[in-house]
Amino acid sequence: MTVEKPEPSEGGSQSPPGGDAVTHDAPRPPEDGPEPVVVQEPESSAPWLPPEGNRSRQTLLRALAALGIAVAFAVVLGLVIVAFSKGVGSNGSSSRPAPPALTIPAAGGTGPGSAVPADWVEQTSNQGIVFRAPPGWTQRVDASIDFRVEPSASGPGVGQVGVGLSAGTTDPDAAATNYATSTYSGQSSFQQQPPTDVVSARGERGRQVLLSYSRSGTPVIVAIRAFPTGRGVLLVVSRAPASDQQRADRLASAVDTSIRLP
Length: 262
Known about the structure:
Elements: H1 51-95, E1 121-124, E2 130-133, E3 138-141, E4 145-152, E5 155-165, H2 172-184, E6 188-192, E7 196-199, E8 205-215, E9 218-229, E10 232-241, H3 245-258
Antiparallel strand pairs: 1-2, 3-4, 4-5, 5-10, 6-8, 7-8, 8-9, 9-10
């Protein structure tokens, strides 16, 4: 007789004879493994910019750098131009003396210089006008004036006085202006002041022109006075160094005081 061996039931459980099957569940491994540890990276402190923002920022920095270079170049160029201009100006001023500023006397023929110095010598012009001049001064004549010129070691000096009669006009203003322009306007550094009123030692109301120019590198001042007289417009002319502006006025006043018309 054959005895059959009962087959084990699914799940590894056996049913005892005469009873319900007892089920033993085998332990199952967990479906999921241990929870992963997530490590968070620290946030960057620099703000994130999109690519367009980076490009704009780089373009702005390049523009600012170019602007700074241009400004620095302009400043350096300006300093060079200023330094060059000063050098040229100083060279030009040293080669040719600047004409002096003219001082117009307040009144002619009536100031302290009107007195005729005692050592002045009486002269007679080529037109018959009697006047006085410093001793030792030499004669020089132009188309209108008979001068007496101060001597110097190298020839005629700066100081001079002279008298004459204007031809072609009876207007003192025109006579003084015309003589100044026709005689001195071609001189170096010529400058002329507008005519002003002047009164002669005899009471005639006339006009005076002051001018300056450079005579062989020396600035000089010339005073030209014109007075109406019975013989025409009387011209009284004097010249002196610009370093002594009042000397031209004193010379003209002294000559005017000494004049005797024929």
